[in-house]
Amino acid sequence: MDTEIIHIINKALDGNLLNKQEIMTLLSVKNLSPEAFAIQQAGRAFTSQLCGGEAEIHAHIGLDAAPCPNDCKFCSFAASNKIFRTHEVIPLEKVIEEALAIEAAGANALYLVTTVHYGEETFLETAQAVRAALKTNVPLIANVPDFDEDYARELVRIGIAGVYHVVRLGEGVHTRCKVETRLKTMEAAKSAGLVLGNCIDPIGPEHTPEEIADLILLARDFEVGFSGAMRRNTVPGTLFEEFGNISYGRLATYAGATALATGPNIRGNCTHEPSQLCGQAGANIMWAERGTSPRDTETETTRGLSVDQVREIYFDTDWKVHEGPSQFYPAYSAQ
Fold first, then answer.
1. Which residues does UniProt call coiled coil (predicted)?
2. Could you tell me how far CA 6 lies from the centroid of its own chain?
């Protein structure tokens, strides 16, 4: 076993923050090596300790599919990928039906996800209707395009607990979103009192340890509610076909490394798509999916798992599923 890796792991387990070079060292280990498995085991132990041995099931409802002008090349909605030719919207009645089913199944947080075409005002109306229909105080989360602080305060006003918003790998190069704009949105969300959900994504085999480490440090600087590692699921026909996907085995090492690198103040460790290997390596937030998905080529996702299927992954990896509202977002409280 590489003694430098042992030193870095122990430093993290002792509650100390790793520097960039140490994070890069963890991310650089050879796949299937003793060092890789040591990082995975340490990530599991660290996250389990921080979260009392509990994992969570978060759930995504995609509200629309469209040829999106933000043109994120890794996304099936990108206009240039020509997968979705028209704007297709999931009817509100269907969204509420899915939300109630997800809530009843025991999800700990519910995310509403849109493209640019959905529109800010329409999202507020939909989110209010969903919030009013829900029967528990499960937190409602927005995964929407960039916004300013005034809109962030509107999200808070209607009962949104947090937002999932990140600077993606290749931002501004393979997307038409500016890094500066993404950062301003994240700052606006924090200023308005929204919890920031985060993940290092979408990771492909071409991404370097330094690129990944930079985004881990950004998550740490923003004091996000949780972070983690998400692989790119390469959409057929896109420019990333030449690279393909990383394996879930490799992603598990990144999941363990991210848990250690984000430190003791960022307790949650997410991954997507759900994977037993990542669960073993410390990922304790995984998503069920309904509606549209940026990783799918059908309006109604065929890739997404149900709440019960995610629960089964946790059972198989010896996680206890948290009951009730998420630990990582505030529970809803009527004003």
1. none
2. 28
Four-residue CA torsion sign, 324, 265, 260, 198: positive
Task: With CA atoms as reference, report the closest residue to 261 among 106, 114, 42, 84.
Answer: 42
pLDDT at 209: 98
Torsions phi, psi for 59 (to 5 deg): -135, 140
95 near 121, Cβ under 8 Å?
Answer: no
Q: What token pair was written down for 203?
A: 């990771």
What is the residue-averaged pLDDT of the chain?
95
Extract the tokens encoding 97.
């039906």
Tokens of 72: 């994120």
> What's the pTM value of the predicted model, to 2 decimals?
0.96
Residues 291 and 95: beta-carbon distance below 8 Å: yes
Best CA proximity match to 43, nearest among 282, 310, 313:
282
Q: What percent of the chain has pLDDT over 90?
A: 87
Whether the CB-CB separation of 153 and 192 falls below 8 Å is answered with yes
Model pLDDT, residue 335? 61
> Do you find a cis peptide bond into 273, omega within 30 degrees of 0?
yes
pLDDT score recorded for residue 235: 84
- 69 and 132 in contact (C-beta within 8 Å)? no
Distance of CA 99 to CAs 14, 30, 159, 286, Å? 40, 42, 15, 17
Per-residue model confidence (pLDDT) at position 131: 98
- Measured CA to CA, the distance from residue 269 to residue 47 in angstroms comes to 7
For the record, the structure tokens of 237 come out as 């026909």
Q: How many CB atoms lie within 10 A of CB 16?
A: 13
Name the DSSP letter for residue 306. Answer: P
Alpha carbons 31 and 86: distance in angstroms, whole number: 42
Residue in the structure block whose two tokens are 């410390």 = 282
CB 263 within 8 A of CB 253: no
**What are the tens digits of pLDDT across the range 291-305?**
998 877 777 766 789
CA dihedral 90, 96, 98, 99 (to 10 degrees): 130
Flag whether pLDDT at 262 surpasses 80: yes
Mean pLDDT for 202-218 is 97
